[in-house]
Amino acid sequence: MKVVKTIQETREIVAAWRKEGLTVGLVPTMGYLHEGPQSWIANSVSENDPTVVSVFVNPIQFGPNEDLEAYPRDLERDMQLVEATGGDLIFNPEPSEMYPSHFTSFIDTTETTELLCGAVRPIHFRGVCTVVGKLFNIVRPDRAYFGQKDAQQLATIRRFVRDLDFGIEIVPCPIIREDDGLAKSSRNTYLNAEERQAALILSKSLALGKKAIEEGEKDAKKVIEIIKSNLSTEPLARIDYVEVVDFENIQRVDTIAGETLVAIAVYIGKTRLIDNFIIG
Ligand code: AMP
Predict the structure, then answer these.
(1) Main-chain dihedrals φ then ψ at residue 231, nearest 5 degrees
(2) Which of 10, 92, 254, 272 is most buried, most CB within 10 Å of its CB?
(3) Helix (H) or strand (E) run with residue 12 in it
(4) Residue 52 alpha carbon to ligand 1 centre in Å
(5) C-alpha 216 to ligand 1 mean position (Å)
(6) pLDDT at position 224
(7) pTM exceeding 0.85
């Protein structure tokens, strides 16, 4: 397993693989890996020949008051995890390698990024799509793996891959949770013991919404109400959004039918957590 810092060297290694006719998998991450990305790396290792894991905290997807500086980083630990999972290469560029001065071209998306995180984090998806587009051009993978925890990101990447003809298979990966239901996230490290307990309100409230739908509720407003009223029982929780949208276009629905995403973002103290389920 090799760690590579430059675009040029990554391209050369991948070109040599391609010459041998190998199939390449890519798992894009911001590092500080946990069982979520680790299981995608395992999927990629079993479905491709070499697997590339990118570890890059992408500055252009963080807003001015977000947690770019605080975001946890531990390359040594990531290296051990990727090696143990069978990954072949970590691409770990410096921000200046990805964004040299006069960097002025971006991938901009509409429709799937209007609501949810797109509405409250204005530059976020432009940053995500631009870095993912660059990673796709650098690695040229056959398949790329993205978690359903970031469901809007997944829908948006699928869309731009289709719209811009990247010709890469996007493989969705299910949400990985702690035993008590909290969705795993690098950001969970920000929570103190009391907040960690309070954070269970996200998965519990979603479970109530899901149960209502499974029992026949089709009115999106009622499902939102069930989730919101349960979230508001937790004093440390502050709702950012609760939305019911179609998973393809990420547009609001009144009636639940077809593949539907129920997504929430909630502050627990100062930490913003997201969670969701997809039904239908
Ligand atoms: P990150 O390093 O947080 O950007 O995550 C790397 C990849 O793993 C992204 O595709 C995320 O959507 C995905 N991911 C992170 N946490 C989870 C989780 N608990 N379950 C599913 N996917 C996840």
Answers:
(1) -60, -35
(2) 10
(3) helix 7-19
(4) 16
(5) 31
(6) 98
(7) yes
